[in-house]
Every structure is written in structure tokens, then in C-alpha cells.
């Protein structure tokens, strides 16, 4: 059970006026209280002051100034501020009005004078990154096993594995959720605390569980009762707890009107002296492994002198007044009223029902709150800024209602930098707006406060409303959702629960102690690069040996052994079997050097053989694969491994690329017309000057920035264990290929794979999943889904409808097949028919309206990425499947364009796609915050359709649970067979007539065996050209279609006249030629390892295509010729029959491409439940 945190803690006693506020639904009366004569004994004041207040003026008590005297203005006007600043009042401008600029400057000066020096939030971040100051780090005078455990834990935390899915933690709330989780786990498994028994009640061992300072009491109570963390033997402890109450200390020992805290300081000094004499542990570390938890305002001051070396867990965490970031811990101020019903009234209204922009109510403590009321009390209808409110039941209810109904809750400092409103805001799910310079927010070392709170400088109070209004609505939605997620870390429970407030405080103490740990003897020297310079410096060798002695020598021995092992391994793995000889050859070596990166945006590449002197070779060796003594082995393959510098003439302007888009796609423009000739410098350059992937217009029709070095290159180990595959198309005639040629190609692929893996350039995959294994994976997925036992109690009505449909699909019987369907091209035509019928009868899709153009709701209907645009257009305009009420939907569509996302947010040549991924993350979090549907299933009933190459990268982390309909369907980069959907890449030339030029010649008139023309994108196409370009009249294999050829027969005519159309992968596994071949009724020959063909879950691709492994390119013609003529006729018939499933229509027709994509998404969802 948790403790309820409710109401306002700064409330007075005397009711003086009542005002009604119509903004609340029940028109509850809001009660003002102005306490004119009362001072609190529990605030930082040295004498009683009678404060005169008026209803019409903001007034109250101003906090203690730098000298300890209380400043108390009766009216905080500009003249009063001038008096504080010792300025002459009444200064006016020429028009007789106060200058707004001068006023702002005065406010800033006033705040600065009252507050003192300031440390900005960014400076706090920097201090945290630098670690605790060296002066605060105390290493034990003798070795302790507990210290070694902490050092070991520190290393484990530092090397914590990256979490992909922390189920019980919400990653955006943390600076590093992986480090936090590992640290928390180690705390639970390792940490032991000894609580000193010394000290008499009530100051010691008597926790107060109610009131403003209850945090220190609840922690004391729970830790002293903890059997998990507490130990009775101090020798087993990692930390030592000093269990005193700072509030009881003040109330017991502070003499009224004494104006002195020396009694409190002396009492704690005597206590520490007792601990030092009785135990040896304080003296061993100087108190660095001791800690206390204190929430009173005075705690920093009374513990500053004699307990500064301890880990101080303080509520008044003022970075400018001695709070040590990285060592001390900021504790949340929790005003606890009752422990009987801790979670009563927790939560608030959904974000859509919070109509108040900002809310604050409280007593006028300190110098800041009068400023807040002066500028914003009764100044704007959406800014509910009040003074104190009544403490009775009605007043508390009104306060809570305002908290629950406001978007932002103002958390303005009082006498100290801390305020209980921060935790109250989180409790009522209101985004906290912290206005308190120098305040270090709770758990600063682990939480990312900027993810769920707003921080405003005190001097910006006059601009408060504009700052809040400048926050976009979607950003607010995300922040409010995060407030709800962080709530569990700020709640007390009678019996502590995982990640609750007790554990979070304890973890921060543990974490800060861990950060202080250093190696025992040489901690001063083992820091940064200087440590290694010192170790290997003869100048300091003597001092180093004296300092480090045994352990230092052990470190040197370990470093030496590692270095020796590394050199031995290098001698084995460097080329030619002789590391030194390869690095320092006696003579120049003639080598064949080719670039692993097709360079620039060009159709012409350089192949040079160059003499390289030994120094150049040694420098170059680490960044490229060098082939010696192989006569032109890689001629035309991968364009070598040479680092080449490209002159400016090599680049094609984006405007030229776009204007020639359609013509280039048909290869009707000659090489000279479509691209500029390249000028290549064959000299060796620095590795960082290596050319990027070439960007040339072709049938893919991409802009120069669309397929670049950023192409996904991560390969998983999923797939064939042997690293290769003999995919469909291998026949007995393959024996005709000399084994030497097969070995040659295998070596080429290995070379390219090795080189590209160094440069993250998406080379050949490390493993291959053949089509047979894909079929097996899909079958296993279906079997697993069929055998799954549904948990009906957790299913909503829509899910039960899907589950019922699943049963009907599984049990579908062979009936009359629709005449429009051709059974051989399907895996199971009866199952497909039944599934399609149920989709038409049942499926409802809700399309999210959120998101702005052009990324959302603006479909692209022409070009390479038109598939996602056409689906978006037809889905949003559909009346049959689209559902306006999300509660009635089975699926939820996120209508963004991956192409527009790249075009709008990616900075050309930046090689940084983090902004794109962040945009997707923010959108997902906004959806999750605004609607309940994502969180209900964690996104499994959501889907998107994306055709850009980068879509897997942009969506892998944050939309991983969704159904991803992707053109780049690569099993090695996370495509999940059975759950994700392979989307056909359709190149649309004419948006008004997408069926233009459809069809081709009959089989008897197709006289060309195989045809390919296109740019040399990726590593595979150069290999295809090397083996088949101009090598055989039956094999029409070209790069860009030469003008001499295109004048006789253009690209489309070649497609219509060829038996087989070669579809090799480009930069990624997908290629528009697959659909082009079907469009022109040519049998597609897919050469792309790990590519999952479109609609894989329903279509039998072996019935209308040929799939060839990449390594079989040298034997390509033999594979095609080995197909009997009758088999080819069947394949070509299958192409003509399946064509209807790959066509777009302005108005969708049955079984067309729109319905096929939607069916695959439906089918995927059906077999997830």
C-alpha cells in the first residue's frame, strides 16, 4: 500500500474571502486564505515578522536573505523591487510609462539578488557527467571485501548490455535504462546496510510518517524493518545509515527566538564523534560510505561542516549551497497526510479533458511566489494562479480538482529550492513546471527530467504563459503520458514494492556510492589517458612503483599479457601469413585495388592498378582488402577497394535527377544524357575520403540522397548455418560450371563481405536464409498460432471476432474456387478465399488523424515509393474498411510516409538518421498518450506501410511490436516472417493511369532468354555485369541501357520480349523489377538472398518465378536453360494469372494490390491472437 499525497501543503487558517471559478465542472467554491500575522517555526526564519496583506495585492513573507534576516514586502510592486535593488523609484520612459525592458531587467536583478549565484540545468548535467569532485572521494585506508564488491559492481554497471525491451521500466524516463536496470539488479543482489543503534528517541529511531517532512520518516521506518538490505554485522555492510530525523532535531533542540542553529550542529557533531570512537568504519573512509536522509530546510546547513563527506540525501537540494551533484542525493518532498488509503484520488483526467493551461495555489513563501502572483493572478483565464487555499475537506477537494484538470502544474520554490508540488503534480498526472533555480530534481542521476517536466528560469516568470503555449500539443501529450509512467517511482508503500519511492531513494544512494569507488592504491592515477601515460612513462616509474606496489604491478602484468596476446593474434590474421612482412615489404608491390564503395553518383567507375609504396600500403592496410598477385581477378567487380577522391564533376544535381526520373526508369536516355562523366583520381587517399555508394538514376528512380551510405547494413546471424544456399534453380546442369569459377565467385563475395562489414556498407549477408527455410519458418509460425490457447478473459469483443475468424480460416474446406483466382499461384487457395471473405465481412480499421503534412496524410502516387502512397490514399478514402470510432476497430493504421519522413527530416550527407527515428518515437508516444489502444496491446494491433529503404531502421525499436508492411523485407535486419508483411515495390510512372503499357508478348514471341538493364547499385549488380555483360547474345545484360540499343528497342520493349527478367538486389534486398516483370508478363528471376517475396504468407512464388542464389550468378544461363519449355509455359501463365494481384486501381477492385496488402496485414493479425 502507498501513502496518499494530496492537497496543498502551504495553507493557512483564516478564511477572508470566497471566489467562484466557473472553469471547474461542478463550479466548486475556491477559498482564499491570507494569513496576516502567523509565521511558521519550521521555516528558515530567525524572528517573527508580522506581514500586512491585502486582497488586491500579492503579498506575504519573503525568505531569509544572505545575512539571515527576513525580508517582508507588504506589496511587491516595481517600486518595492527597486527599493530592494537600492534603485530610485519612479523612473519612466519618454511616454511616461514604465519601460517593459527595464522592468524585465529589474526582475532579473531582483531574483539574482534574492537567490544568489545560479547553476543552470545544463551545467548540472555537465557536473553529473564529470562525476563527483575528487575532494569528495575517499578510499579506504585498508582493503575491504565489500569495497571490492562495489568496484566489481561498478564495472558490471558500466558494461551493462543494452536492453531492447525493459518490460517493467519505461526507457524514455531514464538517462540510460540499461545502466539503471543493471544497477538496480546488483543493488538487490549485493547491497547490505548497517543501521547504527546509537542515539535516543525522539531524534533517532522514531520516524514521523505524516506532514511535509515525512519522506525521511518513511525511509527510516522501512529501512530499519528491511530484512533484505539490513545486516546486524557491520563488517558485512557496504553502507552505514545514520537514522536521525532532521525535523525532530529542529523541533527538539531549536530554541525559539535564539536565531541560532549551533545547538543542532553541535548535537550532530557529538553523534559523529561517538560513532568514530565506537566503530572503526567512519575513520576507514572518512564517512564516505555513511549516509543519512534529511528533509528539513535546515539539513544542508547543519550537516555541512562535520558530515559533508557522507552521502547526504536531502530534500533541499540546492546546487549553489553545497549540494554535491554525483555524491549527494535529491529526495522528493512528499507531504503525507494518511497511510490508510495511499492510492485514493491518485491519477487525473485524460489529457483531452484538461482545459486549464496552468495552476498554482499556495502560501506566499519566499521571494519568488509574490512575483508569480504579481504577474499571473487574475491575468489570464487559462492561468489559474492563486494564493493560499483553505485546509478543510472542501478546500482540499477543490485543490485536487484543479490539479487533475490542469495541463501544467506550477511548482514554484518557497523558502528553499524544493517544493512538494513536484510530487503532487506527478501524483495527479499533471506535467510539473519547476520554477526554482539551482534545484537538483529528485533522482537526478538516473531520471531524465526533461522528458516529463518543464524547467523555467525564475527570471522568465513574466513570460510564463508564452513558454507553455509554445510547447506543441503532441509534445505535451508525450510528456503527460510519461508523467503517468514515472508515477510509480514516487509512491510510498507500507510494504516496499519494486521501483517504488523507498527503492528509488536507496538506489540513488547506492548508485552514488558506486560512482565514488576507485582502485584502492592508485585511484588518483587511474583516471583518463594520463593513467596510461604515467604507467609507461620512465619519468614517473619510480613513484608509480612506490605508490602501486603489488596491485600496480599486477595491472602492468595484465596489460603486458593483453598486448602480447594481441600481437600474436595479429600475426595469425594479417594477410600472407607474415604480419611484419606484410606491413614492411622490401619492394613495391603491384596490387589490384578496387573500391568496395561504388563511388559517388555516377555510371562510370574507375578500375586502376597502382603501385603503392610500403608506407602507403601499411597505412592503407587497416581500411581495405588488398589482393596481391591476382591478374585482374576482380575486374568490374565491386569496383575494387581503393579509396578514391572524386572531383565535383562527378555529382549530379538533385534537380537533374528528378527531371529525368521517368525517362531514366525506362532506360531511354543514354548514359551521356543522364549523367555526367566522372573524373577519378586514382591516387590513394585517406580512409575517411573513401567514396560513398554511388547514386545514379535508374529503374529504381531514386533521388541522389535516397539510397546512400545510410542503407541498412546490420546483418543478423539468423539463417543458414553454412553461410550460403543453393536456392531454386539449381539443376544437374550446374555441374557444367567449373568448380574453379564457383570458388572464384565465392572468394569475391567473401572479399566484398569482409570489406563492407568494416565500413557498414550493406555488403553480402553473413548468413543466408533460403526460400525453403523461409517456408519452414512460416509453417512453424502457423502451427504455433493454431496450437495457441486463447485467454478469453483478456480479449475484448473485437479480438474475439478475429479469433472466431481464425477458427473459420483454419477449418476452411475445399469448395468452389472463385473463377478470378488461379489456384496454383497460392499456397492454399481455399484458406485464402475464406480469409479474404472474412476480411471483407469483419475487418474495421481506424486511421489515426494525428500528424501533420507532408509526412502524414499526404500520399505520393508516383515514383519508386508509390506503394505506401497509394495504400494511404485508398485506405483513408475507403468507406468499407475505415472506421471512425476507434473502439470498433480491429486494426489501427498509422498513416505516415517513410519517403516524406526521409525527405523532410534527413540532412543530406549528414549520415545521421537519429532525427528520423526520434520523430517516429515521439509520434508513437503521442499516440500512446492520447489513446488507450496502443498500450492495451503494446502496438500489436497497429500497422504501417513503408516502402523506403530506411523504414526498418526508423521503426525497428519503437514500432517493433506493430505489423510492419515493408518493401525492404530482409530477414537479416529484423523482418519477421508470419508477422510482418512484404510489400511489393511498384514503380508508378503515370499516377492517372497506373495500368499504362501493361502486358507483353505471348511466350512464342519472346526470343530473348534473359534481360537486365540498370545502375550498378550495391555489391551484386557489378558481379552480374562482370559475368554476363556482352558475354552471350541470349543474355541481354546491360548497365544503363546504351543509346545504340535503346534506339532499336527500349527498356519496356525488352521486358515485353524476354522470357526471363533478371531482378537482382540493389542497395537493399528489394527491387521494383519484380513487379515490373509481372507487369510486362515476363517471368521474374529473383537474385537477392534473404529477400522475403511479397505476400509470402499466401502466394506460392515457385509457381511463377525463379529464385537464384547470389553465388550462382556464374551459372545463371545454365539454370535458365535447364528449365523445360513446358515448365516455362506454366511459369509464364502463372505470371499472367498473378498479375491482377499486383495492380493499383484508382478505385480498388477485388483481389487487387490494395486488397492484397490489406489482406496480408489482416492475415498476420489473425494468426497473432
From TrEMBL:
GO molecular function, one term: glycosyltransferase activity
Subcellular locations according to the entry: Golgi apparatus membrane
Residue intervals passing through the bilayer: none
Main localization, broad class: Golgi
Keyword Transmembrane helix attributed: no
Pfam families for the chain: Exostosin_GT47
Membrane topology: Single-pass type II membrane protein
Comp. bias (Low complexity): 710-725
A Gene Ontology term for the protein's cellular component: Golgi membrane
Biased composition (Polar residues): 669-679
Protein keywords: Glycosyltransferase, Golgi apparatus, Signal-anchor, Transferase, Transmembrane
InterPro entries named in the record: Exostosin, Exostosin_GT47
Domain of life: Eukaryota
Segments of this protein annotated with the region Disordered: 655-679, 699-740
Start and end residues of each Exostosin GT47 domain: 189-469, 840-1120
Family assignment from sequence similarity: Belongs to the glycosyltransferase 47 family.
Alphabetical list of PANTHER family matching this protein: EXOSTOSIN HEPARAN SULFATE GLYCOSYLTRANSFERASE -RELATED, GLYCOSYLTRANSFERASE FAMILY EXOSTOSIN PROTEIN
Identification of the protein by name: Exostosin GT47 domain-containing protein
Organism: Carnegiea gigantea
Record lineage: Eukaryota, Viridiplantae, Streptophyta, Embryophyta, Tracheophyta
